[in-house]
Design a protein that fits this description.
2 copies of one chain form a homodimer. The first copy, chain A, is of the alpha/beta class. Chain A is built from 10 helices and 12 strands. The complex binds adenosine-5'-diphosphate (ADP) (2 copies) and zinc ion (2 copies). Chains A, B: It holds the Pfam family ROK.
Chain lengths: 293, 293
């Protein structure tokens, strides 16, 4: 039976797995992202050490990347600020070393595909997968196809209303200051409140403010992309108070406008956590390998 | 040879045409949108009076609508504020009266399809068509398919940064006040400056402000949907000063972030007017009839 490899290539850590799906993961490894040579070396070593050969490998990678299969630089990490990683032909290096077909997409598109194949977006042809962690990023499937477009979405960097009187924190995005990521990713919470996000209690004022920013962004996504469901993963969403606050605020902001029962009556199944949890990324990479799309 | 009918069903006027494409339009009529009975009566009369029968008809309609072919209310104008038109089964009424297949989509999706088939988006599988007129609305094709999703996009109603010190006009959107449409559609210009938009000269301060709002919205569209081109039609875009101002501002706002040559070097072919001009809507309806999708 065909066996697949998945690589979740993150800016802070890599996760590699071998298997055929969530109930059949035969091996997993994770290690920090250091230099390209060292990191990719460990990836190759892991897959070479497996008892059985892989039919194909999938990579979901941090970016910006070139995820266009028709491009000469398909599968390259392009203009990332991460030192040493600019213009790293990640896909090519893995494919050449292991001699198998390697599919490539953004980390969030891979996670979206994982949730579509086995998780919270099964059977839903138009949806968004968002991660709120060290950064904020989103992937989307539209009418059954992964959205790539010109480059790939960068929906974590949209502007959201920022009331400086309420929140004087200037945002930490090196490109935009107070874009969504700048105001609402994990490091924004840490700098604004002086403590890591996981230490903030559920009744801390950090959470209604966080929910406001996320809800404002979700409303823009809903008005522009009309998703049938929104799956939100990432470390910051582990705060249990957050989902209910975000759902309530999205409904308020949309009320009377997008009159869909999915939102007005079904918000609890409209904005949901990933069913695959923190494995969405690496399992999505396996799904990518299986689909070879 | 197969002959097609197209209906651009707008909130202020209807345009009906018979033909096979932009170079073969055999008959056209336009009339104001009054009651559903009277207006749909004129549509039926027009097609019945044609010398040759139609193979199929397409409708691009104002909304909100139900454009889902699998829904029991496919082709219905749903919760529109336009008096008398709530829950009008437009597609069904036309199909029953004329006895031909009738395809239905939003007005902006139809216009987008027209531009894709014969106009400024030929061969481009992921793009946005935006109209800036009495209202602001957008349609999109993603990876070769018209985007519908949960309902349909309402991208004219996203929020954009509104500096009240610079622009004290509160916006006129009945739902949101100062959303994009509330600040930048034709009626916003008329109320803010006290004169119809077409009378404002090219060097009037109205235009840099208008360009700022449109550019902020386009940047959100680009970050979320990653379109390969943006086509902008509608009455307000007839002001010749506007396209250059919008292009420059989009480039400034994105600079250093979305590093695509299409934007950095090719902005003049990235943000463009419709090649079909004001006929995009009705020709798009004919394309819809031809595709039956
Ligand atoms: N239980 C928690 N509650 C709130 N924030 C958390 C929690 N756990 C982790 N975080 C925050 O999530 C961020 C890391 O997100 P994560 O998705 O795990 O990593 P990455 O985005 O680097 O892949 C950090 O900023 C951390 O403070
Ligand atoms: N040459 C022009 N310059 C600027 N604005 C214009 C011009 N012509 C029409 N408009 C404005 O465009 C709006 C009508 O847009 P249009 O696309 O023609 O109609 P609709 O959106 O109702 O289909 C009006 O608000 C009008 O003031
Ligand atoms: Zn940013
Ligand atoms: Zn509005």
């Amino acid at each position: 039976m065909a066996l697949f490899g998945g690589i979740e290539a993150g800016g802070t850590k890599f996760v590699c797995a071998v298997g055929t799906g969530p109930d059949d993961v035969r091996a997993v490894t994770r290690f920090p992202t250091t230099t390209p040579a060292e990191t990719i070396g460990r990836v190759i070593e892991f897959f070479r050490s497996q008892p059985e050969p892989m039919t194909a490998i999938g990579i979901g990678a941090f970016g910006p990347t070139d995820p266009d299969p028709a491009s000469p630089t398909y599968g390259t990490i392009t203009s990332t600020p991460k030192p040493g990683w600019q213009n790293t032909p990640l896909r090519k290096l893995v494919a050449d070393a292991l001699g198998v077909p390697v599919a490539f997409d953004t980390d969030v598109n891979a996670a979206a595909l994982g949730e579509y194949t086995w998780g919270a977006a099964r059977g839903i042809d138009t949806f968004i997968y968002l991660t709120v962690g060290t950064g904020i990023g989103g992937g989307a499937m539209v009418e059954g196809r992964m959205l790539h477009g010109l480059v790939h979405p960068e929906m974590g960097h949209i502007r959201v209303p920022h009331d400086w009187a309420v929140d004087p924190f200037p945002g930490f995005c090196p490109y935009h200051g107070d874009c969504l990521e700048g105001l609402a990713a994990g490091p924004a919470l840490e700098r604004r409140w002086g403590t890591r996000a996981e230490t903030l209690p559920p009744d801390h004022p950090a959470w209604p403010l966080e929910a406001e920013y996320l809800a404002q962004a979700l409303v823009s996504y809903i008005l522009i992309l009309s998703p049938k469901r929104i799956v939100i993963g990432g470390g910051v969403m582990h705060q249990p108070a957050l989902f209910p606050l975000v759902r309530t605020r999205v409904k308020e902001l949309l009320a009377g406008y997008v009159q869909s029962p999915a939102i007005l009556e079904g918000i609890d199944t409209y904005i949901v956590p990933p069913a695959l949890g923190d494995r969405a990324g690496v399992l999505g990479a396996i799904a990518l390998a299986q689909g070879q799309r």
